[in-house]
User: What shape does this take?
Amino acid sequence: MKSLCLTLFLFCQTTFNNFDFEYSNKKEFVQGIVDCTLLANTFIPPTERVVILISAAQAVLESDWGESRFAREGNNFYGIIETDPTSPHLKALGNSDIMIRTYGRKCESVADYIKVLNTHSNFKDYQELLLKQWISGEVDPVAIVKTLEDYALDPHYVDKILNTMGGLLKEYPNIFHLTTKA
Assistant: This one.
């Protein structure tokens, strides 16, 4: 039994590590982020799974629909900062002290975003609410988004995520019809 579990784990890890996507328009970008988020969610405990719609909305906002320099050159869709100068990164054009992580594959950015939300001390409220909602069986994406106010410096960030979520649901109902819950 142990060897079967190990084999499945290695197969799934290889599948995830080799998964990537291409996009040439907004719909393909959103679908790619959704697919990566769904895949990443399968490899983590249910109590840590992100809401697909929130993941997509933040990727849209942080990367300008995958068109930002950090997205195109570094596969970073969430503006995740790098603090180790020896790790792969891009420097911000206006401030070379700011380093943004780079990823070999697009889905690595999604997986790291999920890891940051579930481990960084700035997101304790997010982590606690996610656990409470999982225990209750009722997911409230709006309440979850309200815990992400520290994700960006923009004081209107929460409103922007919520507006983007609404726009995504309206523009791409077929993508999100079964993926609005974690």
